[in-house]
Amino acid sequence: MLSLEAQTTLGGFELDAALEAAAGECLALAGPSGAGKTSILRIVAGLHRPDRGRVSCDGELWLDTNAGTDVPPEQRRVGYVFQDYALFPHLSAWRNVAYALPRESRRERALELLDRLKIADRADARPHELSGGERQRVALARALAARPRALLLDEPLSALDARTRAHAGRELATALREADVPALLVTHDFAEASLLGDRVAVVDRGRIVQHGTAAELAATPGSAFVADFTGAVVLSGDAHPAEGLTRIALDGGGSIASTDTAAGRVAASVHPWDIAIAPPGDPAPGSAQNHLHAEVVSITAIGNRVRLGLDAGQPLAAEVTDAAIRDLGLKRGSRVTATWKASATRLVAL
Amino acid sequence: MRPFTALLAVALTVALLFLVIPVAAIFANTAPSDLIHSLGDASARDALRLSLETSLIALAVIVLVGTPTAYLLATRRFRGRSVAITLIELPLVLPPAVAGIALLASLGPQGIFGGHGPQLVLTTAGVVVALTFVSAPFYIRQAQESFAAVDPRLMEASRTLGAGEARTFWQVAVPVARAGLLAGGALALGRALGEFGATLMFAGSFRGVTQTVPLAIYERFATDFTGALALSAVLVAISGALLASVKLAGRRAFA
Amino acid sequence: MKRVLLVAVIALAGCGANDAHLTVSAAASLKQAFTAYQANDRYSFAGSDQLAAQIRAGARPDVFAAANTKLPDDLYAAGLVEKPKVFATNRLVMAVQPDSKIDALGDLGRPGVKIAMGSPDVPVGSYTRQVLGGLGPKLREAIMGNVRSNEPDVAGVVGKVTQGAVDAGFVYITDVRAANGRLKAVELPPPLEPQVAYAAAVVKGTKHPEAARRFVDGLPGASALSDAGFGRP
């Protein structure tokens, strides 16, 4: 269990955050850039000392500004994957990984880790000779090398191109599971947060404005900020080509279409404001290809619009107007049809 | 070619001609036989040996003390830091004669620390002191810039990987800043090899003890212009080789 | 090539100078006297041998004044200057600090005594060696063994003594006088004392031959020289 509470002054605002992550759990810190997400990681790692705060991991106190405790970073044993990775430019890939290892048998252990992340063949390359995806894997191997007690990942996928990102994301999820330590992952991309985080904490101007599972946040955003930030809802399923489109058989039943091309396991994402709500039964004729039967599980007003949490086999969220709620007589438990266009459906291979 | 580009090209040509012609003239006026003859002279060999010895000792002292100094100035913020930087850089802009006077006023027999500790004036140790004084800022400034250019996240990464501050310094900061440190060392060594005024005022000129190559060149200038040219040629060759090897080492630093 | 470069350097140095002013290359020991003699001229004070070498390399001051007669005579023989004129005499002495216990040439041979002298090529250095040549080999060796610095001009020797870097140095009596009490002169035994005569010459090719000749002709007996302690030729 990793727990943190901290207050400190950053650039133009006050950081005031408290969070916990259990072993094997990945808590995603999501929010716009400059919100203070990275500062939270730095406080956990011991690289930034907050004005007031307390950090502990597995019952060991790392920081307590009241008691004057401040364990230096080198004794905290966190695995930190920096944004842009911060690989040592003068060391080969395996020596980067071996940096945290004891002298004896460190080459073997480093190569073993690189092998697990499938880049043992690049062990002797310097960072500048590696591709973005290779660097990300070396950085991950380096962070995992000394058997860290917590993992901190700062935008681990944002330096990668779209194609590499999906693949790297899947590997990262596996690595996080295997490491079985608390993990904090910083991202500005809600879709990434919902793919990799067991829970998501939305950070804005130094505060955690809401946290929960990605589906909870999308379905019942606590504020307009969270509603806008959460953006796309993610559905998982198996894709195959059909009639010039891609058809996705969703986990938990139902099927949808997308204009993106993909095959195999995919995550399909759609924005709540692209989803229209109709009474149950046969859908009205129109251009929309996707129709899912769903039950309304929550109704959350955000200003002049309303976020509907839906259960369509998988959690789904739609955004409609107050008038639509009245006209359709929607309440919790109402059955509806959620409708959207194939061209509003983005696919990411898993 | 566009007019502005042409202007730049003219400036480069003028700069090159002005800087290269005097150096080239040294070699144009030195027959290889003069060179050999001049190096065969015992006093020339004494001066060369003394110059190399004192410059290398000065460089060792500068690197030993200057590297941690530069690292501190580059990586920490503290009260008086900018004052410290300015004070360290001051000898850069001091005329050598002023440096000589300053050394006499502080470490000379009648200086504020005079009479205490070992006698430095007119000794080989005094030459080392003068060379260190005038060349240290060249190294420290360059080293500080190189350390400041090291991505702080590399050092933070090292810390999170279990390395303390000392190991981070040796295994990350120094190797990453290596090219800049080498360049700074070469600048300082070059400056030390060429030092004249402060050495003459503080350490005097005595063959084998305090007469470095520049002093020997000056002494020969009056009676033996050819010999002075030959000795100058040797100094140019040494300094040129130094500069070239540093450029090469810098290029290979990350290859 | 070297000639061209040196001329260029001198030309640059002379930029902005009023044409009416002379450029005078003079022995370091003449500094006080010459600046009192004609304050507005441009002076280059250094070891006479260095200045002579500059003229040989192509530098063209208007007047050359040396601390001996040999250097001007050599330049005259080389056709670089007009006929030199002896304009003053000086006396070589030992300079020590006012409270020094050294009061004879023989004291310089004692172990631990530190001495500065001019390098062999500069007049003051050659006079000094002339003096030492008149000593017995044992004392001469002892004194030479105590030498810590061979300075390129007499100013360097004076500086080393006033700073206490050395215990004694060989300089001219005029230098001791110019030091305003910070130095004491110890006279040399009269039989050993060298004849120190200063000679000046107009450099050939000067743009101001008249002014240069007036400068040289006015030197013998000038009050600026006698005030500084120089003797009449």
Give structural notes.
- The complex is a heterotrimer of chains A (350), B (255) and C (233).
- With 350 residues, chain A is of the alpha+beta class.
- Helix content of chain A is 25%, strand content 37%.
- Chain A has two domains: 213 residues, 3-Layer(aba) Sandwich (Rossmann fold); 117 residues, OB fold (Dihydrolipoamide Acetyltransferase, E2P).
- Chain A has a six-stranded mixed sheet, with helices on both faces. A five-stranded antiparallel sheet of chain A has the order 2-1-4-5-6, with helices on one face. Chain A has a five-stranded antiparallel sheet with strand order 14-13-12-15-21.
- Chain A starts with a strand and ends with a strand.
- With 255 residues, chain B is mainly alpha-helical.
- Chain C folds into two domains: 120 residues, D-Maltodextrin-Binding Protein, domain 2, CATH 3.40.190.10; 101 residues, D-Maltodextrin-Binding Protein, domain 2, CATH 3.40.190.10.
- In chain C, helix 2 links the parallel strand 1 and strand 2.
- Classes of the chains: A alpha+beta (350), B mainly alpha (255), C alpha/beta (233).
- Chains B and C meet through helix 1, helix 10 and helix 11 of B and helix 3, strand 7 and helix 7 of C.
CATH C-level of chain B = Mainly Alpha
Average of pLDDT of chain A: 89
Task: Count structural domains of chain A.
Answer: 2
Radius of gyration of chain A: 22 Å
Helical percentage of chain A: 25-40%
The CATH class of the largest domain in chain A is identified as: Alpha Beta
Q: Which parts of chain A are unreliable, with pLDDT below 50 for 5 consecutive residues or more? A: none
Short description:
Chain B is mainly alpha-helical and 255 residues long.
Topology diagram in text:
The complex is a heterotrimer of chains A (350), B (255) and C (233).
Chain A: E1 2-10, E2 13-21, E3 26-30, H1 37-45, E4 52-57, E5 60-64, E6 69-70, H2 73-76, E7 78-81, H3 93-98, H4 106-116, H5 132-145, E8 150-154, H6 162-179, E9 183-187, H7 190-196, E10 199-204, E11 207-212, H8 214-219, H9 224-230, E12 233-242, E13 245-250, E14 255-258, E15 264-270, E16 276-278, E17 290-302, E18 305-311, E19 315-321, H10 322-328, E20 335-340, E21 346-349
Parallel strand pairs in A: 3-9, 3-10, 7-8, 8-9
Antiparallel strand pairs in A: 1-2, 1-4, 4-5, 5-6, 10-11, 12-13, 12-15, 13-14, 15-21, 16-20, 17-18, 17-20, 18-19
Helix pairs in contact in A: 4-5, 5-6
Chain B: H1 3-28, H2 32-40, H3 42-75, H4 81-93, H5 96-107, H6 124-149, H7 152-160, H8 165-176, H9 178-194, H10 197-203, H11 213-223, H12 225-252
Chain C: H1 2-13, E1 23-27, H2 31-37, E2 42-46, H3 48-56, E3 63-66, H4 70-77, E4 85-90, E5 92-96, E6 115-118, H5 123-133, H6 137-145, E7 147-151, H7 154-162, E8 168-172, H8 173-178, E9 184-187, E10 196-202, H9 209-217, H10 223-228
Parallel strand pairs in C: 1-2, 1-3, 6-7, 6-8
Antiparallel strand pairs in C: 3-10, 4-10, 5-8, 5-9
